[in-house]
Amino acid sequence: MRILILISTIILVCNTLGYPQTTDHSSIKRNSIYVEGYLVRHDFSKGFVSINYERNIGKNRKTNIRVGIYPDFESAVSFPLTVSWVTKPLSSHHFEYGIGAVINFYTINFYTKEWFYEILLMIPLMYRYQKNSGLFFRGGINLFISLPTLPSPSISVGYKF
């Protein structure tokens, strides 16, 4: 019986020491670019795709700041600005949540060159698959708070460097 306990203890110690969980957050790359496709068009834009840059900040790499451009190539251009947080930054699977704004510039008549703007609240709720660097994927809902409030499913693919 003592031999069994001794062997079990040795295996447990070797297993624990042989596969330590890393806590080095510095291996996570800070910059990302990605394309986000919206599956439902919003009431403020006729476009389907935004191009985004994201910067990871903070010691634990949980916070992301995003700025993007979302043109519809007809009468509006929007700029999403968000702050989001990810769970378990050292893992590959994340829940991403945040808050931000979309600044929408639009014209009613393109030829008069009279531009208007509106600011909308944006709440992203996403599943995110990413490693420390390289390709990543996102999918979930961007909730746009406006009249009417619109939950917009979206998917993204990007590169972390």
Using brief descriptors, characterize the structure shown:
Porin, 161 residues, 57% strand, 8-stranded antiparallel β-barrel, elongated, mainly beta, 8 strands, 1 helix, single chain
Describe the model:
An eight-stranded antiparallel β-barrel has the order 1-2-3-4-5-6-7-8. It is elongated and about 90 Å long. Helix content is about 10%, strand content about 55%. The protein is mainly beta and about 160 residues long. The protein has a single domain, classed as Beta Barrel (Porin).
Span from first to last CA?
Answer: 53 Å
Instruction: State mean pLDDT (0 to 100 scale).
Output: 84
In spatial order, strands of the major sheet run 1-2-3-4-5-6-7-8
- According to CATH, the fold-level topology is Porin
Helix content: 10-25%
Strand segment count: 8
Total domain units:
1
- Name of the level-1 CATH class: Mainly Beta
Shape: elongated
**What oligomeric state do these chains adopt?**
single chain
SSE layout and pairings?
Elements: H1 2-18, E1 31-38, E2 49-57, E3 63-71, E4 76-86, E5 93-107, E6 115-130, E7 134-145, E8 150-160
Antiparallel strand pairs: 1-2, 1-8, 2-3, 3-4, 4-5, 5-6, 6-7, 7-8
Brief write-up:
This protein has a single domain (23-160), classed as Porin, CATH 2.40.160. It has 161 residues and is mostly beta strands.
